[in-house]
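Input:
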Amino acid sequence: MTPYPIFRTLRIVAGFFVVGCLVAPLLYAVWLSFSPDSFLTPPERDWSVRWYKVFATDTRWSMALSRSLTVGLACAVLSVLAGAMFAYGMERFRFRGKGILGILVLLPMCIPPAVLGMGLLPLFYLVGLWGSLLGLVLVHAMMCLPVVYLIVRSKLRQMNPDLEMAARGLGAKPSQVTMRILIPLWGSALVVGAAAAFAVSFNESMVTLFLATPTTETLPAMIWPQLRYSPSPLVAVASVVSVILALGVAIGFGGIVKLVDAKSGTKKG
Amino acid sequence: MNPRPYLLAGPAATLLIGLLVCPLLLVIRVSLYQPANGRGFFTPGTWTLANHSALMDAHGLGLVGYTIAFGAMIAVVVVMVSFPLALFLRSLNFPLQRLAIAGITLPKFASVLVILFGLQQLLGDTGPVNRMLLTWGIVSEPLRMMRGLFGALLGEVFLILPYAVILLFVQVLEIDPILESSARGLGASRWQVFRRITLPLAMPGLVLAGQLALVWGMGAFLGPLLLGSPENTTLSVEIQRQAFEYGRWPRAAALSIQLILAIGICLGALTFLHNQVSGRRLGGDR
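Output:
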């Protein structure tokens, strides 16, 4: 497009410099995690996995890790189920209260987590969800609803509603329509929504901090006090492990998307 | 009345009402309690407006002003950086584009805490950036980038930018490239093409990105707390401090309501402004 190749090169260099800045904090944290001593200086010659060993042998960290995974996966399932049903109802039906629901579902994005935490703490105290992982799962699922809803809805809008009508008209039961039409066509978007929900929940730290008790100590709740009062390479290690897990789950979900798409492709042909 | 849409929307609506609307109502109630006398978080069974009126002094209003200014700065910086970046992404061809998108989204797989930790270490007084600047003789003493407004802003921008870039990238991808190339062919300058075609067509995305950045910037908590100065903080930080460090729950609840109101008003003002401007432009063109 640009007639002068030098400008093109300069633009690419400048653009990638900005992208590089965005990744830099994460990469630096990874580098710090291999530090051989307890100071936060990046290792230059002698890289060490000392802090990884500490992380792996401390049961508090591994407990926190498994709690984070549990909450993330449960939240993904719950928010996709609720979000998909909600989106289907909103897209395929006209009903009273639809307008309010459309606003309500996007509201979690606009409420600052500190305010949400302020309200949730007394609420959980009142209804007895205080200190239970279930409470955390429910809150995360609620927070993920806008994202899941937007992802799932855009795909639903591309799908032809006549297909569902035709199947119904030809005598298919609602369960058959769901299994044979909706899931194959819609499945990939549902999986993407689930992956997004998992990532949000796994990395959500604000509400988690407000609601943290020793029995619900997830990864962010473990990292937090260390980060605030005595940063050590252990924080970096925890970070690296969580990033790798989140990426791994995302790639796993990506594999499922391919599988779903391939399957619905063969059915069509 | 067909019950099916209600059954379908039911689970999500229950989650939203139970865990979003109810907590917000509870915050309103808590803000009307008298502060605790000795034990507990508040005095049960009391009603008072004192918590709200206590926020109307110079310090309280300064806090609101700071929060609004903080959100506005975040919105401006995020839009100014993410729009060129989105256009840049669009101009790349496939492998480079993939690489850049991966680079932008990668930090979003990491916890917010990780990104802030990395920034804190990178830009701290003894961090590598300062050491580099010192060795090259650009500065004589370490630049104080953390523990101040700059650090807080930078932290939040790092957290919000990836979302804005992806949102705007999707928006500019929808612009038909033929429009821009034919305008060029008809003799428009590069600037004219940007001003008359790219910018107006990207406007809905820009406004949405600005609104998101404003809302998230005003609600910012972790960036200002970890990278900002302890004296100047946003409302979110003050809420947490009042509730957890001083145990003044009614005060924290009143602050929460103030924050929600401020966000609502700013969002409304931004939307109103955009409607006015776009309405006038449409009218002028006709």
